[in-house]
From TrEMBL:
EC number annotated for this UniProt entry: 1.5.1.5, 3.5.4.9
Pathway assigned in UniProt: One-carbon metabolism; tetrahydrofolate interconversion
This protein's record includes keyword Amino-acid biosynthesis: yes
Function statement: Catalyzes the oxidation of 5,10-methylenetetrahydrofolate to 5,10-methenyltetrahydrofolate and then the hydrolysis of 5,10-methenyltetrahydrofolate to 10-formyltetrahydrofolate.
Source species, domain of life: Bacteria
Name of the molecule in the record: Bifunctional protein FolD
Residue ranges constituting the Tetrahydrofolate dehydrogenase/cyclohydrolase NAD(P)-binding domain according to the UniProt record: 138-278
Subunit structure: Homodimer.
Pfam families: THF_DHG_CYH, THF_DHG_CYH_C
Protein family membership: Belongs to the tetrahydrofolate dehydrogenase/cyclohydrolase family.
InterPro entries the UniProt entry points to: Aminoacid_DH-like_N_sf, NAD(P)-bd_dom_sf, THF_DH/CycHdrlase, THF_DH/CycHdrlase_cat_dom, THF_DH/CycHdrlase_NAD-bd_dom
């Protein structure tokens, strides 16, 4: 039997718990605050940023959105990040990705104080994650791990196959699963015999960015299938990288799209913001 890993439902539960924690912090005079920076008018980014603001409001986290035009220069953005780094009332800073072409994404990420880097993208935080130190974990991988743990899915000794090697999903989820004692294989667009490898996976994480690229033929019976893809169809509806209807016949657990990994990404951002407000990521500013 297949069990649905419903990220939307789990997100709602976690947000209720976080609201209680935020209320307690507020009683002690500490209101977690997140600054979100959006450059340009990419419709998907706008929608994700709205989702982040709404989720902050639901949990009592204060937030502000800095919206900048598409032709903002790198220097202008760096100067705004600097202001936010030096504002003690701001605990978390998030620059929505992707950025316009004139910006060097890595340079921008480097400019965010590691202590306020609630996305967990700064190299200091990436390094700490790599060595297993406590730090901000990037939100999508953190959400995936939380979903697996919520269903007590054992990772010990399991073969986890990751399709995709991006800095924000593929690479970090592999590291997190390795730290949970899974045996991890990374695959990507140049991998030969992909199907042969994915069919060995006990846990298959799909982050390819190609609608319905993975179907039951790529899946071992009773594997756990996590779909990170968000693709818009011609009719405007969203769909994943996994052909859900076909794949669910083989999977023991499977995430849907929408309402799977996506909502968890936003929820783990809230968790990181609370952590930042509590000063739990001790790094130089
Ligand atoms: N600075 C960052 N930029 C980006 C990140 C990130 O973690 N930090 N991740 C993605 C986009 N993303 C968050 O920013 C994100 C993607 C999807 C969802 C989500 O809730 N999806 C819903 C469907 C939403 C819809 O209807 O459009 C779902 O899957 O159910 C939230 C956040 C790239 N940029």
């Amino acid at each position: 039997m297949t069990t649905l890993l419903n990220g939307k439902e789990l997100s709602e539960e976690l947000k209720q718990k976080m609201k209680i924690e935020v209320d307690e912090l507020k009683e002690k005079g500490l209101t977690p605050h997140l600054t979100v920076i959006l450059v340009g008018d990419n419709p998907a980014s706008k929608s994700y940023v709205r989702g982040k603001e709404k989720a902050c409001a639901v949990t009592g986290i204060s937030s502000n959105l800095i919206e900048l035009p598409d032709d903002t220069t790198e220097e202008e953005l760096l100067s705004i990040i600097d202001e936010q780094n030096n504002d003690d009332s701001v605990h978390g800073i998030l620059v929505q990705l992707p950025l316009p072409d004139q910006m060097d994404e890595q340079k921008i990420i480097h400019a965010i104080s590691p202590a306020k880097d609630v996305d967990g993208f700064h190299p200091i935080n990436v390094g700490k994650m790599m060595t297993g130190e406590d730090t901000f974990i990037p939100c999508t991988p953190y959400g995936i791990l939380t979903m697996l743990q919520s269903k007590d899915i054992s990772l010990e000794g399991k073969h986890a196959v990751i399709i995709g090697r991006s800095n924000i999903v593929g690479k970090p989820i592999g590291l997190l699963l390795l730290q949970e004692n899974a045996t991890v294989t990374y695959t990507h667009s140049r991998t030969k015999n992909l199907q042969e490898i994915t069919k060995q996976a006990d846990i298959l994480i799909v982050a390819m960015g190609r609608a319905h690229a993975i179907n039951a033929d790529y899946i071992k019976k009773d594997a756990v299938v996590i779909d990170v893809g968000i693709n818009r169809k011609d009719d405007g509806k969203l769909t994943g990288d996994v052909d859900f209807e076909n794949a669910k016949e083989k999977a023991s657990f499977i995430t849907p799209v929408p309402r799977g990994v996506g909502p968890m990404t936003i929820t783990m951002l809230l968790k990181n913001t609370i952590k930042a407000a509590k000063g739990l990521n001790h790094v130089e500013r």
